[in-house]
Amino acid sequence: LQADMARTIDHISKKGGDTGRFLFGTGSGWFQRDYDEYGYEFGTAGGRLNDLAAALPRIRSRWSVLNPAPTRDIPILIGGGGEKKTLRYTAEHAGIWHGFGDVDTVTRKSGILDGHCRDIGRDPAEIERSVGVEGAPEDDGAALYDAGVRLFTVGQDGQGGYDLSRLKDWIAWRDERNG
Hints:
This protein is an alpha/beta fold. It has helices at residues 2-12, 32-38, 45-65, 86-93, 103-120, 137-146, 165-178, and strands at 24-26, 76-79, 96-99, 128-133, 149-154. The protein has a 5-stranded parallel β-sheet with strand order 1-2-3-4-5. Strand 3 (96-99), helix 5 (103-120) and strand 4 form a beta-alpha-beta unit. Helix 4 crosses helix 5. The N and C termini lie far apart (40 Å).
């Protein structure tokens, strides 16, 4: 079902003659309320990771037989930092890894991801690095960039409205960095 929904969004996100712009973001799940509200069994972390491991090849296989097919190879983003399984699944299936934590944590986990890539014969440079950021770009932006992170997400909790000034600061910093 996720594969079919992703294909549909991929087609909807198409602009003119371009291909779609949708990223398929997934992980093993961590927020029990989401499971409860949809009526899914939350289970254990290990069980959710096993489900993710089974779903990823099934999703990719489904994309290869859908009619109409997706507009291109839909990029898979896997979020999470589990060193043994999540980062391994990222090495096997994803084009983008979204991690969490401070610079040292992201750097260390990125190195572990690189090791998993080497173990399966994949070039680690094929996987973009993404991280959720807090604070201003002057705080950690350069260090995260030096650690290989190129995609930055700025969270909003919506409490009291949305202040996009921090997002604007990160976009300006990114654009200046990328020249």
